[in-house]
């Protein structure tokens, strides 16, 4: 079996053309990486240079869609040309009859494999052509040039800028059609697409995978997760409920006001008339400092600030934070759908949704009353907020989202699950979490025992 190759001027020219086209393919592939890897810092440096190459780069980057289309169209033309030239080159260097001769040897020593000499020879020639050209194109036209481009972004962009401007002019009719068609298609897809980002649970999983599990990062992970959920939290979920609001009657004597201020330790006290549904304003503790020695009949009502910020229960706390900043307020009254007072929310409550509990020298050591019986069992007051329960037992605040409906407290969650006002020792199960009512009166659930799932 003799391998016969005829080297004629046409073959040599084809080989040279093949090498030139391969170099062009590599340059185009590398220029794509180079131009779209230019950082903001590099852009600022190029703007200050005032050189011709810098101006060309900036001009090309002003129209990224056109630039990308030019590179892709040019590269496709070059790659198609490479395939055509390589086919001619292979037929000259490796004739089909040579592959037929190899096929005869394979059939003679291995077997026919169900092929004739000619069909097997053509299959071998086609396989060598496809595999060989593909490997050369991928390696020399894609991988190596792009690796080089990553390491030489600006120099490569400079050297290719002039060529790409020429190519953009040559292919302008085609690129214009492609860019316009892409814009139209993108707008149509955007119009019919439902904007739906990743869920908070998916983002939380990504945070757990991204951040290391060292002890020093636990608080950082918790803050990141709180930020993710921040926009989904409503005023109703973080407010102090109506029953826990510390307020003073507008007609109360000055001594009663001072007594409330001393006992509560709050810097701002809501003032109501008749009941909490008629809030008249807020009295600031700092405004009382200059009047501490006044007589018991002192008319403190003149110190009440009547500007009251009313907040609907459904208001998102990210919007509420902006409103607090704009209005320069630190406290707001949460109202229900009928205009009645549902609760009270402060700037501190909002910030605690990100950084966790903020305690000062006047706060009790523990604000949420609970008892940890063992690793799986906890005892909570019924009025404890669901968000606080989730943080204490170390689970995601969205764990009970499916069942809570409008409930914000643990007692409200149990009422939603039970469907009735439960009796003492009533047990409710939700996805492995066992709620046992341990104390209840005619009006509300006072105490609940929570048992975590065995794998929780």
Describe this structure in words.
It is built from 18 helices and 12 strands. The chain is an alpha+beta fold. The chain has 4 domains: 9-192, no CATH class; 197-230, no CATH class; 232-355, CBS-domain; 370-451, Uridine Diphospho-n-acetylenolpyruvylglucosamine Reductase, domain 3, CATH 3.30.465.10. The strands form 3 sheets. A 5-stranded antiparallel sheet has the order 8-9-12-11-10, covered by helices on one side. The protein is elongated and about 115 Å long. 21% of the residues are buried. The model is unreliable at 1-6 (pLDDT under 50).
Q: Give the averaged pLDDT, no decimals.
A: 81
Number of strands: 12
Number of domains: 4
Strand order of the largest sheet: 8-9-12-11-10
Number of helices: 18
Kindly report how far apart the N and C termini lie: 73 Å
Shape type: elongated
Helix/strand-derived category reads alpha+beta
Sequence stretches where pLDDT stays below 50 over 5 or more residues? 1-6
Q: Helicity level, as a percent range? A: 40-55%
Largest sheet geometry: 5 strands, antiparallel
Please sum up the structure shown.
Helix content is 55%, strand content 13%. The chain is an alpha+beta fold and 456 residues long. The chain has four domains: 9-192, no CATH class; 197-230, no CATH class; 232-355, CBS-domain, CATH 3.10.580.10; 370-451, Uridine Diphospho-n-acetylenolpyruvylglucosamine Reductase, domain 3.
